[in-house]
Specification:
The complex is a heterodimer. Chain A is 34% helix and 19% strand. By secondary structure, chain A is of the alpha+beta class. Among the domains of chain A are: 118 residues, Uridine Diphospho-n-acetylenolpyruvylglucosamine Reductase, domain 3 (2-Layer Sandwich); 111 residues, 2-Layer Sandwich (Alpha-Beta Plaits). Chain A has a 7-stranded antiparallel beta sheet, with helices on both faces. Chain A has a 5-stranded antiparallel beta sheet with strand order 5-6-10-8-9. A 4-stranded mixed beta sheet of chain A has the order 1-2-4-3. In chain A, helix 8 runs antiparallel to helix 10 and helix 13 runs antiparallel to helix 14. The longest helix of chain A has 17 residues. Chain A starts with a helix and ends in a 7-residue tail after the last helix. About 1% of the residues of chain A have low confidence. By secondary structure, chain B is of the alpha+beta class. In chain B, strand 9 and strand 10 form a beta hairpin. Chain B is globular and about 65 Å long. The chains are: A alpha+beta, B alpha+beta. Chains A and B meet through strand 9, helix 7, helix 8, helix 10 and helix 15 of A and strand 5, helix 6, strand 7, helix 8 and helix 11 of B.
């Protein structure tokens, strides 16, 4: 403690119980623990000093960005150290000639695009909390967003990192050029949920802004019809920038909350965004319109300017927050299914919803099969247990369809105990071997990703509104 | 075989002592999902042929006809790398056989998935030293309805490339055949391809040539002695030092006929140590060690 104060400055080491409470959880508010100490380093060397001290004294530590993660990846360990990267928020270099930008981990996602927008570039991954969530957190979680269908996830856009290993050594991986020699350590690090080290600088690809962006919104009577349109769009060889769906319940909630004026009586709306060179976008848009009409869309709206586009997105972007209008509590899942199984899985969710006697709203990234079912319940009426069962049953339905536990929120604490439903003991044991290669002493964000008996005896708590959501800074998509 | 070598303390080299030739089945091709799962011994040409029947492709076009396992293990790519990336960008999941015989899977077969460690990417570029790749799930793309190649002769490749990369055109491939030439590939609908070609010609000139021009590029890549990396912004300086090479400017990768010690692909000491630690966890008896 004294040692850290000397290195970081006393004001950058937090030990006051009141202040420590700020760090007790991330966006997964059902899990809480008070850390022993929070360190706020300002450089790679300072991160290294903190990690070395933890390693020497065998104290577990966890890195933290903005704390918007939804799977408890940044939940501290009681008695452990939180390393907040909030002070490392500088953009280190903009190299437009290389189409790269070098940033510290505490830079907010949207700040990257802001820094280069005037030059005609943007940073592609756009998680819904992008105003506040940090690049460091994005790297840890391999964050996606609504527009990753065409442009890919964080892992496709990180070309280099400086990584402080769990024993305090520093390693440079990748750089501004691609395809480094040897095993793809960078690909392993991105999405490892802060369990293999702490990144202290990140080199990102910048993407040239497209010539044209066009957004369509189509209203359907059923999710089946909208799902059929999704399959037909993909089968036609069209690759939209975004392809999103909302069902009746989430549309109703959005109307109550922000009144986006979606097609009246719609059982589902599909939001399709196309971008690229103008001739291609024009042709694709005509194709998408034709497909939607064929699949039974009763109303189609097209937006070609920013204002009209924002209006079409308004309902979608507010969907999670809007749920507060129709229910007191909800669980959100993050399961993935093969695109072609969407209609079948949505029907299964409907059945499960009926048998459990709880409503489920569906708002999701239809293009890549990433569902975000919202299980609505009322904790005060004792529905918590049933809601949890229903959420688990939905996850099973996703896995039965050949999908995944999580498409973008991560495993963290939340789903560590569910990992055996997707991976065999040998798979998990192999993950454990890779982890040991980085962190022999098990100090770096322990208890996350890989299930442990101690951890899996515990039961996760219900969803609570995150303080950032309440403030309107972040939303859940 | 691996388990026996592990117990007996023998060494095996994947591709020599142990091949995946028998693992040659395409297990699943879900055209509607644009994904497929194949055994690692499938040849790229065999896979492309099967996918083409459904109007799809794996967007990797390295020289030669490697197996899918080799494609990953050697991290091979060709001109399409410009837009579609390397194997690590298109792999969704793998099943590995570790040196002690343990069969382990990672990733999945859906296009979006963040559950567990990404061993599918880790083995890309691993040269068969970490584990045997037995089965691979891949992301596919639709075959383009039309394509056109533009060839530009220039002794100022740097300026031409900068102008193309700075534009809003979206080529699928962009190779500098140094010295003197540039090839650009546009794919999409016939009308959009024609419009992109016209726009590119307005920007940098050039003539439309046969698609076979890309074979020249791939042949040169195959014949290269050295693969080097450079900051994409330092293209001109790099070209200055190269004699004959195929350069992928957006990736910052060049396949060169001359040796360039200063740009050789060197792993840092700590990175090497890290790879060695992973290797010894996955293969403690050194069965797959070089």
């Amino acid at each position: 403690m004294l040692e850290l104060s000397r290195v970081l400055g006393a004001e950058h080491v937090i030990t006051e119980p009141e202040q420590l409470r700020v760090y007790e959880c991330d966006g997964l508010t059902g899990h809480r623990a008070i850390p022993e100490l929070v360190a706020l380093p300002a450089s790679t060397e300072e991160v290294q000093a903190v990690v070395r001290a933890c390693h020497r004294d065998r104290i577990p530590f966890v890195a933290r960005g903005a704390g918007t993660g939804l799977s408890g990846g940044a939940t501290p360990l009681a008695g452990g150290v939180v390393i907040s990267l909030a002070r490392m928020n500088r953009i280190l270099e903009i190299d437009l000639g290389s189409q790269r930008i070098v940033v510290e981990p505490g830079v907010a996602n949207l700040e990257v695009t802001r820094a280069v927008a005037n030059d005609g570039y943007f940073y592609a991954p756009d998680p819904s909390s992008q105003q506040v969530c940090t690049i460091g957190g994005n790297v840890a979680e391999n964050s996606g967003g609504a527009h990753c269908l065409k442009n890919g996830f964080t892992v496709h856009h990180v070309t280099g990192v400086t990584l402080v290993l769990p024993d305090g050594e520093v390693v440079e991986l990748g750089g501004k050029s691609l395809d480094p020699e040897g095993p793809d350590l960078l690909g392993l690090i991105v999405g490892s949920e802060g369990t293999l080290g702490i990144v202290t600088s990140i080199t990102l690809r910048l993407v040239r802004s497209p010539e044209v962006v066009q957004t369509l919104l189509a209203g359907f009577e059923t999710t089946d019809a909208a799902g059929a349109a999704v399959s037909a769009i993909v089968a036609a060889g069209v690759l939209p920038a975004a392809l999103e769906m909302m069902d009746r319940l989430t549309i109703e909630a959005a109307e109550l909350a922000v009144a986006p004026g979606y097609p009246a009586g719609a059982g589902a709306v599909l939001l399709v965004e196309l971008d690229g060179v103008s001739d291609q976008v024009e042709e694709d848009a005509a194709e998408v319109e034709r497909i939607c009409a064929e699949c039974g869309a009763f109303e189609i709206r097209v937006a070609t300017n920013d204002l009209a586009r924002a209006l079409l997105w308004k309902g979608r972007k507010s969907a999670f927050a809007a749920m507060g209008r129709v229910a007191t509590d909800y669980y959100v899942q993050d399961g993935v299914v093969p695109r072609t199984r969407l209609p079948a899985v949505l029907r299964r969710i409907e059945e499960l919803s009926a048998t459990h006697g709880l409503r489920v709203g569906n708002v999701f990234h239809a293009g890549d099969g990433n569902l975000h079912p919202l299980v609505l319940y009322d904790a005060e009426r004792g529905e918590t247990e049933r809601a949890r069962d229903l959420a688990e049953a939905i996850l099973d339905a996703c896995l039965d369809a050949g999908g995944s536990l999580t498409g973008e929120h991560g495993v963290g604490m939340d789903k560590a105990c569910s990992m055996p439903r997707m991976f065999s003991e040998r798979d998990l044991e192999t993950f454990g071997r890779v982890r040991r290669a980085f962190d022999r002493d098990g100090l770096c964000n322990p208890g996350k990703v890989i299930p442990t008996p101690r951890l899996c005896g515990e039961v996760p708590g219900p969803y609570r509104v995150h303080p950032l959501e309440r403030m309107g800074v972040a939303e859940r998509l | 075989m691996l388990a026996a070598a592990h117990t007996e303390g023998r060494r095996l080299a994947i591709g020599e002592d142990l091949t995946t030739d028998g693992l040659d089945r395409i297990l699943e091709h879900e055209a509607g999902d644009l994904t497929c799962t194949v055994e690692a011994g499938v040849r790229l040409s065999t896979l492309q042929h099967a996918l083409a029947d459904h109007g799809q492709r794996l967007s990797l076009d390295p020289p030669g006809d490697p197996t899918v396992g080799a494609l990953l293990a050697r991290n091979l790519s060709g001109p399409l790398r410009h837009r579609f990336g390397a194997p690590r960008d298109l792999v969704l999941g793998v099943t590995l056989v570790l040196a002690d015989g343990t069969i382990a899977s990672a990733g999945g077969k859906v296009v979006k998935n963040v559950a567990g460690y990404d061993l599918a990417r880790l083995v890309c570029g691993s040269q068969g030293r970490l584990a045997l790749i037995a089965r691979v799930s891949l992301r596919l793309h639709p075959l383009p309805k039309a394509r056109q190649t533009l060839a530009i002769e220039t002794d100022d490749a740097g300026t031409v490339v900068r102008s193309l990369l700075g534009s809003q055109l979206q080529p699928s491939a962009l190779d500098v055949l140094h010295p003197g030439g540039i090839l650009v590939l546009f794919e999409g609908s016939p009308r959009a391809v024609a419009a992109q070609v016209a726009a590119a010609q307005g920007l940098v000139g050039g003539v439309e040539v046969d698609f076979g021009a890309w074979d020249v590029s791939r042949r040169r890549q195959a014949a290269a002695l050295e693969r080097i990396r450079f900051d994409p912004g330092l293209l001109e300086k790099t070209l200055h030092e190269l004699r004959n090479a195929v350069v992928r400017p957006a990736a910052g990768v060049a396949y060169s006929e001359n040796d360039m010690p200063s740009n050789r692909l060197l792993q840092g000491e700590i990175e090497k140590l890290l790879v060695e630690r992973i290797r010894s966890e996955l293969d403690p008896n050194g069965v797959l060690a070089a």
